[in-house]
From TrEMBL:
Ranges where the HAT C-terminal dimerisation domain occurs: 455-508
Organism classification: Eukaryota, Metazoa, Ecdysozoa, Arthropoda, Hexapoda
Protein name listed in UniProt: Uncharacterized protein LOC128199627
One Pfam family in the UniProt entry: Dimer_Tnp_hAT
Gene name tied to this protein: LOC128199627
Family matches, as InterPro entries: HATC_C_dom, RNaseH-like_sf
PANTHER family: BED-TYPE DOMAIN-CONTAINING PROTEIN, HAT FAMILY DIMERISATION DOMAINCONTAINING PROTEIN-RELATED
Length: 557
């Protein structure tokens, strides 16, 4: 582009002498755009509550890095924002080192540690262990800090553990059905022709590959296999007889047996509910206050399908968390496994049906048991946060929020407890316009003033907005690592942490503001920084060409 611009007007000295190449672009990103956008982010956070979401990883250059996402109240955008904050290089990945790295970075950037409301982590012991973990160290400094262990990771592990009760042939079928086509265009084209012949020229769906770290990805593969069951069975039957292929013979032998199909139908139906909840925890377009209630409902629905109803009626929700449900299971014949399973069960022999139902029962028991073990320790607190939903807050009859008030300690973050409770019961006396989203509602409440210009509901609005910043999962930091791996690839494996920080800050800042590089408007500070002083060359970071250019620029100056 720079080579083409001078041709627009050959008489223009400005265009003729225009030089914007790799060095200037790099310095512009590293020393102007990135730092300016980070400073704007810190200013937007200000003295308001925030939460962080953290995860550590090792990149392709064997460098240990800690990624920090931040969830805060943006008074510029009038909403709760989750965005990229920092990439920090780690020497050691023990709890003390990670804690010190986070605290030192927050102090360096001028973000107050005492305003931190929550922290989102994965299930690693170094993060959430009871003794000498990152979260336990933070809890000593901030006793009312809300710890959120990633539910997405937990649901994957629960499903993977529960699937051990199912026959290994199912895993073999799903994996090898994908592998059958993955390295052979000839097989894929033959199957496409066969499928189009059987289905009036419809194009077959691709069977997705399995993931070693994301077990729930099997759901989409299972769904595709069941949709193309007859076509795949015919394909393997032809390959078995014509090509004398042993793999095709094994796959056909599995697919011709009705018990395996019944188990796959059951597994598809059960994983669907887990997948739906998992996706809710990954998206930002949901009401966060209700997500943990949905998690508990998934666990409760499993118990209702397994436990004798008379036993469940005796228990309240808080007792279900420690309930030993295996002592009160219904008979297998009384359990319901779905309409599709009921339909195909008519094709099974009585002996096979009993075995299949027993395996389905074991899967549900194992899934419920794993979810019970991995429920957040503070689930009752996280469920109570759902009471702050606008529709509940504006109703005449509302629940008591004393459990939340008893947990909090920092009045400068949440407000005064007595005033919070008083204002909580006064919210229904006024008609509010934004009642669909918690963030929009409490921003409206925060800005409501009396005749003298004083805030009517300052404490309850601070209370509601603070809890709105509590993280819901680690999905955002996983996405950040995906961006990190795209930026730092095999061809760009020597990028420094400072450059990576700036590139990711530019990417997330542009996407957060709904713009792009073509609509971006630089601030006055960026324009002031865009000068010869942005070339901060050091021996360890620059090449000989950079130093020559720096000397030339100094002479010109």
């Amino acid at each position: 582009m720079i080579s083409l611009l001078p041709q627009l007007d050959p008489s223009s000295d400005a265009l003729k002498n225009l030089k914007i190449h790799r060095t200037k672009c790099s310095m512009l990103i590293k020393n102007v755009l990135g730092p300016s956008m980070l400073e704007a982010l810190v200013e937007d956070i200000g003295d308001f509550p925030y939460s962080i979401i953290i995860d550590e990883s090792t990149d392709l250059s064997s460098q240990k890095v800690l990624c920090i996402m931040i969830r805060f109240l943006s008074h510029k955008e009038k909403q709760v924002v989750t965005t990229f904050y920092r990439i920090i290089q780690l020497i050691e990945c023990d709890a003390k080192s990670v804690h010190e790295a986070i605290v030192n970075q927050l102090k360096e950037d001028g973000i107050k540690l005492e305003n931190m409301v929550g922290i989102g982590v994965d299930g690693a012991n170094v993060m959430v262990g009871k003794h000498n973990s990152v979260t336990s160290i933070f809890k000593k400094e901030l006793p009312d800090l809300i710890i959120v262990k990633c539910v997405c990771h937990s649901l994957h592990l629960c499903a993977e553990k529960a699937a051990e009760s199912l026959p290994r042939q199912l895993e073999f079928l799903v994996r090898e059905s994908h592998n059958w086509f993955s390295y052979s265009p000839k097989r894929l084209e033959y199957y496409r022709t066969l499928y189009e012949t059987m289905n009036n020229n419809n194009d077959p769906k691709k069977i997705q590959g399995l993931s070693g770290t994301r077990w729930l990805a099997r759901y989409h593969a299972i769904k595709t296999i069941l949709e193309q069951w007859e076509e795949l069975k015919l394909l393997f039957s032809i390959a078995k007889s014509d090509d004398k292929c042993f793999m095709a013979e094994q796959l056909y032998d599995i697919m011709r047996r009705h018990p395996f199909k019944a188990l796959l139908i059951f597994l598809q139906n059960e994983l669907k509910h887990v997948i739906q909840l998992n996706l809710l925890f990954q998206t930002n377009n949901v009401e966060p206050n209700k997500l943990f209630e949905d998690l508990f409902l998934l666990y409760k629905n499993l118990l209702k399908r397994l436990v004798v109803p008379s036993q469940l009626e005796k228990l309240v929700d808080s007792e279900l968390i420690e309930f030993n449900f295996r002592e009160h299971l219904m008979h297998t014949a009384s359990m319901y496994f779905g309409f599709d399973f009921h339909s195909i069960s008519r094709e099974l022999e009585e002996k096979d049906l009993l075995d299949v139902r027993e395996r389905c029962k074991n899967f549900l028991c194992s899934l419920a048991e794993q979810i019970q073990k991995r429920l957040p320790d503070n689930l009752s607190l996280l469920k109570t946060v759902a009471d702050l939903h606008p529709r509940v807050a504006t109703s005449q009859v509302k629940p008591d929020i004393k459990p939340l008030l008893n947990y909090i300690q920092r009045t400068h973050v949440y407000g005064k407890k007595n005033d919070i409770e008083s204002e909580w019961y006064q919210l229904s006396n006024k008609i509010w316009t934004n009642t669909s989203s918690s963030a929009d509602f409490y921003f409206e409440v925060y800005n409501d003033c009396d005749a003298a210009g004083c805030k009517r509901f300052e404490n309850i609005s601070k209370f509601g907005l603070a809890f709105a910043t509590v993280p819901i999962s680690n999905a955002s930091v996983e996405r950040a690592f995906s961006v990190y791996n795209v930026v730092k690839n095999k061809l760009r494996n020597r990028l420094s942490i400072k450059m990576l920080q700036s590139i990711m800050m530019v990417r997330f800042s542009l996407s957060r503001n709904g713009g792009s590089c073509t609509t971006f408007n630089p601030t006055n500070k960026m324009l002031n920084l865009f000068n010869v002083n942005m070339y901060d060359f050091k021996k360890s970071e620059s090449s000989d060409e950079d130093e020559i250019l720096y000397n030339v620029l100094n002479n010109l100056q």
